Amino acid sequence: MTDFRVKGRGRVNTDKPIKFTFDDQTFQGFEGDTVASALLANGVHLMGRSFKYHRPRGVVTASSEEPNALIGTTRGKGRFEPNTRATIQEIYPGLKTESQNKWPSLKFDLGAINDRLYMLFSAGFYYKTFMWPRSFWDSVYEPIIRKAAGLGKAPTEVDPDIYASRYMHCDVLVVGSGPSGIAAALTAGRAGSKVVLVDENSEMGGTILSEPSVSIDGQSAWDWLEGAMAELDRMPNVRRMTRTTAMGYYHQNMIGLVQKLTDHMGDVPDGAPRERMWRVRAKEVVLAQGAIERPMVFDGNDTPGVMMAGAAQTFLNRFGVLVGKKPVVLTSHDSAWYSAFDMADAGASVVAIVDTRNELPKALQNAAKARGIKTYLGYTATGTKGRLRVSALRVNPVRNGKVGAGHMLFCDAVLVCGGWTPSLHLFSHTKGSLDWDADAKVYLPGHKTEDVHIAGAGRGLWGIAAALDDGTKAGMDAVKSLGGKAGSATYEVAEDRTGTGITQKELPTDRNPGKAKAFVDFQNDVTAKDIRLAVREGMKSIEHVKRYTTNGMATDQGKLSNMNGLTIASDALGKEAPKVGLTTFRPPYTPTTFGAFAGYHKGTHFEVTRCTPIDSWAEENGAEFEPVALWRRAWYFPKAGEDMHKAVARECKATRESLGIFDASTLGKIEVSGPDATEFMNRMYTNPWTKLGVGRARYGLLLGEDGFIRDDGVIGRMRHDLFHVTTTTGGAARVLNMMEDYIQTEWPDLKVWLTSTTEEWATIALNGPNARKVLEPFVEGADISAEAFPHMSVRECTVAGFPSRLFRISFTGELGFEINVPARHGRALWEKLWEVGKKYDICPYGTETMHVLRAEKGFIIVGQDTDGTVTPLDAGIGWAIGKMKSDFVGKRSLDRPDIVAPNRKQLVGLLTEDPKTVLVEGAQIVDNPNQPKPMKMIGHVTSSYWSESLGRSIAMAVVEGGFDRMDDTLHIPAENGAIVKAKVTGTVFYDPAGDRLKVE
Amino acid sequence: MLLIHCPYCDDTLPELEFSYAGEAHIARPADPSKLSDEEWRDFLFIRTNVKGVHAERWRHINGCGRFFNALRDTVSDRFLTTYKAGEARPDTTTLEAAE
């Protein structure tokens, strides 16, 4: 294999050779190389296959906008990453990389058949090719498209890496460390501002790294750079961050930075985070992101070996690699001439410089002549030769708009430059406007919405001297906005490479343009003729053209393709570019890992898990858990060999026959206190509270102003001016927020205070005929006999010596108590009850049994049997409405026309014809099962269980006009075309008279 | 992420501490039973949905817990000002001029 490394060039450390693999073949590079530069040093251009046509593709750029050289990297188990840009990934010993989108191999790929079938895959092919016949949608098209879609392989294992997250505040954040960014950082740093300078590359310097022949202040550019870095590092108020991408610019100068910490390391220190997301709030931002070189659009412009001239210059000067020994340069901008000169000076035989322009500065032409480089002015390129590597470029003269005869320039690389696009992505994130510069045919920053300054090539300036001056000015402006004053600085730049150029649509050709494969978007395989086709088919806005062709929609987000696409579309439409529009850039600037966004919030840290004081007991006693809102609740307590069904049947039976114990600590609890507490309760809840005596409790129902059920719970009156309100487990925060809203904004005159006490109390529910027998001996300070302590009562007393609010209530239909004790005593009380309860075969039960027991009694669960469109009347709990009350939240809505209309969905019971059939919750209900599809759905099943007590299944459902359908048979279409029959009933299935509450 | 000034804490704090609470200056009628169906519908559901300066409620939920009002431009997503619950809506013209 030929060595393309040039001695004495580049910044890589040639004392430190590094071996890595690409498609299982071992290559050698040096410390400081990227995968791309190291492969190029070994003469490898072919690095991938394209997305749609599977055309062979080589590396095009030297930086983060790379569309083609996307590779998979493996950094050990679980650490596979697809679509890594070879131009960014640094090599380290043992790095394994692979090419993508090829089978069986990169050099011979069967998928390339698509390239021959390109007529099928033109713009909008999704909408056309796969339309007919209909029967092919599911069986043929969909599986094939799915298999073919996507770029790279998705990782399959859990990512074991750590991702860190930090906040940062600074005075001036400078994005980009080219000459303008460095000058801005120096200026603001010297003025004492707290400065952060970031760059996505491993090394700072930007353009300076690619332009060593320029001299600044009498030193070589690289010596000057070293000095500038040293000065910045000496300032305690300046922080420099490399490998750090400003990926998004958000409101009020918040910038997201993703810092890559370990992807370049062979030996990663234990516990080191892979990436760190910085959320930076900067008082001022300087965007010095430079400009991105534009490709030229001509037939065969995607052949490996065709690449950006500026990239070739970077590979040579920064990495010491010649991308070819016989390159042709094809350009419309002066900058590529300098690339040609650097290549020639490094020993390449530059075949020719082909420029589409007719007139060029004499100095450039003389410099070419001095190096013996042939020049073709006023020429176009009309084709390439070579499939896996370019071997010739076909060029033709253009005279008076006519394309003359073509001839071949034999070469091993084609270095193109179609002008430069100011990189204004982050500025666009701020919704800053872009103004069209008709002369330069570029968009430049316009109206600003944030405290931001743009410097250098981002404003269309060219050359290192201009960039340094503009960066200095941006730094001064930033300091001035901060209220300070920064000193000016001037830089003496010699041998600066200033220049101009033009941009253009696809190059003119003497061949049939309809057959040209002239690519605009390399990554999404969009050609110039696709864009023209989209315009012909009626796409008038660039937004439509983009979506129809997918131009600019790949992972590079159109960094190379957007402007060429716009130029071609505007030519096809016969309108100026700004009239066609520009698609919006959105974060992230470059592909960003999910890990960086997630940070520490993964696994058990993804969200808070709330545990009750009794959670540890449940865990020790083998509970299965389920999440309820943020809570982890005991679901059921299986004994050896039991599944959920068996465990729940046993728990239900034990509770109904003797005694069950249940952890109800998750119930929301709100203390409502103050002289106006009763008035407040009257206004909030549907029920009347005035006459509720101290020591009594009542079921409370809360509506929204729209009349629909929001929450419910038992509310005890502790004192004249104090209510113990309970809410649903998931509704506590919502209810408190709603109550606060009314107190603060509607009724600020009421003297009432709310305190969330959910976590202050542990709540243990004892249910079953033997509940009192176990509890009574523990209670002091209250008589809990049936006469003294009737159903729906509450006492303050002590239970087992712990201060307690003791309720006699039942969510099971059995004799029931809910014992609230301070949370820290919850487990101790539980264990005491447990010990004594053993006499009665006490059985711990979980949420599933709780659900079954309450459903047997027809008690609703808000959010399960209601869904935000259910009124108290719909739910059959109209009795909870205080008829005499003049107003409460939601009362007026109970008279709304839609609420009083007939045929509303109402909550009823369902008993299946076959008692063994348990309906599926959520199943739709129909009247006549023989009606044609789609059938009219008249309701759905809200709750459905096996009832061990009744020896059959039970269900609740909301059904249109349900109250008038008692004893009707309804139909529930089930899986595989089966239809389940069920009879409409009331919702109380068990002990309708309520006798079981009355145990003495 | 926005920075929001809480008029009760008199401090400008990150959006994470706040929750949105709908349009401002929609008072609950003193006696809803006096309202026609149409009037009650308007109270419940009809909102201005402005393009431009919008008076809206926020709650400093992870802070002092107070509800307050804000004027925010729905186009630029910029807060013009915030003010306490119960206070009249400030004159927008002077605030917009100050922008």
TrEMBL record, chain A:
InterPro entries: 2Fe-2S-bd_N (IPR042204), BFD-like_2Fe2S-bd_dom_sf (IPR041854), FAD/NAD-bd_sf (IPR036188), GcvT/YgfZ/DmdA (IPR028896), GcvT/YgfZ_C (IPR029043), GcvT_C (IPR013977), GCVT_N (IPR006222), Sarcosine_oxidase_asu (IPR006277). The keyword Oxidoreductase applies. This is Sarcosine oxidase, alpha subunit. Keywords: Oxidoreductase. It comes from Yoonia vestfoldensis SKA53. Transmembrane segments: none annotated. Residues 616-884 form the GCVT N-terminal domain. It holds the Pfam family GCV_T_C. The keyword DNA-binding does not apply. Residues 905-991 form the Aminomethyltransferase C-terminal domain. The lineage of its organism: Bacteria, Pseudomonadati, Pseudomonadota, Alphaproteobacteria, Rhodobacterales. GO terms for molecular function: sarcosine oxidase activity. Belongs to the GcvT family. It comes from the Bacteria. Residues 516-599 form the SoxA A3 domain. NCBIfam families: soxA. One of its GO terms (biological process) is tetrahydrofolate metabolic process.
UniProtKB/TrEMBL annotation, chain B:
It comes from the Bacteria. One of its GO terms (biological process) is tetrahydrofolate metabolic process. GO terms for molecular function: sarcosine oxidase activity. Coiled coil: none annotated. NCBIfam families: soxD. This is Sarcosine oxidase, delta subunit family. It comes from Yoonia vestfoldensis SKA53. The lineage of its organism: Bacteria, Pseudomonadati, Pseudomonadota, Alphaproteobacteria, Rhodobacterales.
